Amino acid sequence: MSPTTRPAPPARRFQGPVLPWLLDHVRAGPVHFTLIDPDKTPGAKAGEAAARAESLGTDVVMLGGSTGITPDRMGQAARAVHERTTRPVVIFPQGPDSLTGEADALLFMSLLNSRDLRMVVRAQAATSLKVRSLHLEPIPMGYLVVAPGMKVGEVGSADCLARNDPKAAAAWALAAEYLGMRLVYLEAGSGAPSPVPIELVRAVRQVLSVPLIVGGGIRSAEHARALLDAGAQVLVTGTILEEGGEGALGPILREVKDARGRRT
Ligand code: 1GP
Question: Is the C-beta atom of 250 inside 6 A of ligand 1?
């Protein structure tokens, strides 16, 4: 079989390319991604966490983490999520060890504001053939780390975008779109004390045509509402489900759903 021919997927409930599905959803209103770290929440636990998030209305399960990730761990988590939910499973890669053919798609991302060329393009060149052989759908994404950046800012050698410079954030995001990225992700860093500033989101959204993803430090319905009002089209949360469970994630999902309702 030619490496470009995708074999019939195993029996799983989500099927088909993720990007067109996501673009359709974003056109209808905002979307929520739940980030699950297969190191902290391995195997069946990842499936349980995803099932809880799905019951609250999350749209996509993202698998990723900064340490302890292996292809086996990613594969087990992806399988468990598929067994327990109907949601697409998308890899949020940390490096080559994040790749598994058990997921539906991979955020094929460039950390554009990194000083380290490995983060910008070299790791991608080192893994592209593997992505192809695994029949993973690569979704080109510009990844921009905003201060404080937390762990990803540090390990990614990011020159973090300043929180008080919306014009610079807009310029970087537009550059990502002009380079052909299909999504742009503004990331404050997992566990950030506060999310990406509203002014940055607003400025980016004014110039961007591709969907804008915002994540890092989103902990409340108020955060979610402000970011959605400013123009975020996808919200990503991770820590809130790990630490606060459904009681904490529920109000955020309600904001996303309400905002979607206002669009239809
Ligand atoms: C990390 O933006 C995501 O890439 C999630 O951040 O863990 O702070 O929700 P939190």
Answer: no
Q: Whose CA is nearest to atom 4 of ligand 1?
A: 190
The pairing of strands 183-187 and 212-215 is parallel
> Domain containing 37 — which CATH number?
3.20.20.390
Residue 219 lies in a domain: yes
Q: Is 64 in the pocket of ligand 1 (CB under 6 A)?
A: no
Q: Could you identify the atom of ligand 1 that is nearest to the CA of residue 152?
A: 4
pTM beyond 0.90:
yes
Q: With 60 as the cut, is the pLDDT of residue 123 above it? A: yes
pLDDT score of 244: 85
Residue corresponding to tokens 């999520």:
81
Report the separation in Å between the CA atom of 239 and the middle of ligand 1, taken as the mean of its atom positions: 6
- With respect to residue 13, please indicate whether it lies within any of the assigned structural domains: no
Strands 105-111 and 183-187 come out as unpaired
* 99, 103, 109, 114 alpha-carbon torsion, rounded to 10°: -50
CB 238 near ligand 1, within 6 Å: yes
Assess whether the C-beta atom of 35 lies below 6 angstroms from ligand 1: yes
Q: How confident is the model at residue 98 (pLDDT cuts 50, 70, 90)?
A: very high
The total of structural domains in the chain comes to 1
